[in-house]
Amino acid sequence: MPLSDSQVQALARDAIQRAAAGDFAAAEPLLAQVAEARPNSGQAHHLLGQARLKLGRFVEAREPLQRAAAFLPREVAAQVNLAGCLTVLGEHEAALAALDRATRLKPGDAAIAHNRGRTLEALDRADEARQAYDEALSIDHRLMPSLVARANLLAAHGDWIGALADLDMALTNRPDDAALKLKRGELLLQQGDWLRGLPDYEARLEGPGKQYVPDLPRWQGEPLSGRLLIYPEQADIESDAALRDTLMLARGVDAVVQCGATLAAWLDAPAAHRGDPLDGFAAAAPLRSLPYLLDWTPMALPPPPSLRATRERNAEAIGWFTAAPPPADLALERDPARIAHCRLVVGDDLWPTHLAAALGVSTIMIVGRSADWLWGPRTARSTWYPDLELIGAEETERLAARLVR
User: Fold this and answer.
1) Domain that holds residue 388
2) Is residue 198 predicted with pLDDT exceeding 80?
3) Checking DSSP bridges between strand 256-258 and strand 271-272, what pairing results, if any?
């Protein structure tokens, strides 16, 4: 039986009261009844779509929001909410069309311009995305989402000066924002500016995350009356990232190295397993904080950690630890346990490649454009290991020539 006008109005009032109180789960079925009773009501469909957005039911929100946008062609919020839903669903072209309609209805709106930038960026239209962010910031030069989004976009396209300017502006508004400081720190470090970048990089320890932290005071470089523990931050101590960080950074300080079984057999240093009692330790420091705590510079690094094994002098095999296809007719070694028996190792930025370099085996590391900040501005020779040569992932001819030698 169709609902009467008074019944529909009562349902709508109850639903709106519940939504205003934040109880969208209770409001949504009431709004669905109202929308069914009034299929040509743009407001009813808009309210229903908004409730489903709040509940994270984006697929179900699309249909009422599309109806609302059609029935309310001059309602900015209807176009913007539809665009937001379509963006989550990955329908970026349709989202952009809705935002363009919103722009025509309300030109000069910073939030709409920002959302257009995000949508254009998702469509890989970087130049237009930057123009949209520029427009948003010309309206509100302190608009945080646009400052951060434009900084990320500029950094991705090599304009690190512009990216740093945006991050500096953002940090004037939020000087204690750990995510912003970390982003600025990483950008400075990628340019080789350790002096300014390392303090900001410590902000990674302030934000939420899944880093491992031992139950010890964090070492700040002060003299200690007990032992110091240095450790990889990764939750999985046997992950490639943790093994790599240990080989690269466990140097330059008298400390016990926390490591997994894979590296315990290699490191010629006091070691502790994760989960061991922490009695006798006065403090702990994450490996990635050592450059900051010990005032390292890219051109003045401590020597690599000592290892128990030594490389074999008359080795013939070539170690291959990269996803790049190997040349034909080469005797390849792919077992990390046999790295000491290689005359040359070629690898990506992975722990076996670091192991080879630390052993003194001639090593070629292939690094991509998004290489870890620890490598800084890429040069052919690395100061991290004396026998390490860096080659870009795109330099296939150079790698082939190097293998011939």
Assistant:
1) 317-404
2) yes
3) parallel
